[in-house]
Structures are given as C-alpha cells and as structure tokens.
Amino acid sequence: MRNFTNQNREDFITRGAQEEKVFLEMMRIIYKLSEYRDYKTYEHTMRVGWLSARLADSLNMDKEFVLALEYAAPLHDIGKIGIPDSIILKPGKLSEQEFEVMKKHTIYGYELLKNSSTHVMKMAAEIALNHHERWNGSGYPRGLKEEQIPVSAQIVGVVDSFDAMVTDRPYKDAVSLEEAFKEIQINSGILYSPRVVEEFLRHKSEVAKYYTDIHGVVNNQVLGRR
Ligand SMILES: [Fe+2]
Ligand SMILES: [Fe+2]
After folding, report:
1. Measured in angstroms, how far is the CA atom of residue 148 from the centroid of ligand 1?
2. What is the CA(182)–ligand 2 centre distance, in A?
3. pTM as predicted
4. I need a surface site. Which of 21, 70, 128, 185 has the fewest CB within 10 A?
C-alpha cells in the first residue's frame, strides 16, 4: 500500500480549479442526503435555496447575505436525519407525541451545524434552528416572535411553507399555486413576516413562472417525484 503524506493530500485537494468543484459537489450531496427520505430528489432544498436568495436580494439584503443564504437555506431540514422513518414517512397527520419528536429536527440541525466556523454554515445553523418560528410566536422550538426571528429564517419560513404547499408530501396533496399565494397572504403578520410576504407577493408572477417553467409544478404535479 502506498503511503500518502499530508503534502500529497493537499496537492490533490487543491489541484487546479478542483477545490471549488469538490465543495459544490459535497454541498449537493449533503442537500440530497438531508431530503433523501421524504423526497427522491433534492429539488425542494434547491428551490428553497434559490428562491430565498432571490427574495433576500429584492429585500435589499447585502450581497454577502444573499450568497450565503443560497447555500445555507437548503440545509434547513438537515436535522430530519435524526427523526425516525415512522414519523417522517407517516401518511396522514402526526399525533401530538409524534409532532413533538418531529419538532426536534430544528434542534438536531442546529446541533450538527453550530460549531462551524464559516459564515455560510453559521447562517445554516441559525436557519435550521429558526425556520419554524412564526411571527405571532406560535412556532417552534422557542416560540420566538416578530423581529426576534432572524431575517434569514423569516425568509426561509415563507419560501419553505410555500414550497411545501405546492408539492405533494407523504401526509398531504399539493394545492395550486394560486391557493398557496392566498394562504401566504392570509397569514401575513400572523405566521409570516409582513415585510417578507409583501416582497414575495410583489414577485408573484415570477415565482409562478419559476415553478411552472423550471421545476415542472404543472397542474399540482411535481415532475420527478418518486
Ligand atoms: Fe423543517
Ligand atoms: Fe423544507
């Protein structure tokens, strides 16, 4: 067996433009892993990342924030890795006890990501922990309210909910884009940040186009789903 030195390894990892490619490929694999059990593809995570970043951009967040959000938002549900299949894949409503277990995916995700040193991963930890917090304090895990909820999680909270509404899940069928927009609007200032909802709805036609054209959500059917 050959004995590789640390220098060998370093040369291998940093060879040419490979470094960035390895990073991106690793991120895609992690996104895929984080959704592997409730989705066959990782399209949900990618849509949440892409749309959250576009929304942050139109909310005039700075460029650093927007770029970090695009990579960090897809990791919001990574803590689901710690939730049993009997709960993740359960068709129909969760019992109260099961829901209590499900809520823990926010903490598990945070625990996984919290000791990272990079800006992107720190933001990912913040989003994992807070993406189910709701504007009126009815969310979890801590029941944060209004601006106590980090902006990154306010944005992901809207996009993630919208995407969940328009796609089939083990426990429910998809609703139409129009119905989902209405649901988001009704809950502005109740579940979701009014500022984020206002901006999201201002781009309604672009969001609808993104779903129908690019990701194949046509007549409530998500193409490529298992
Ligand atoms: Fe979640
Ligand atoms: Fe999600």
Report:
1. 18
2. 19
3. 0.86
4. 21
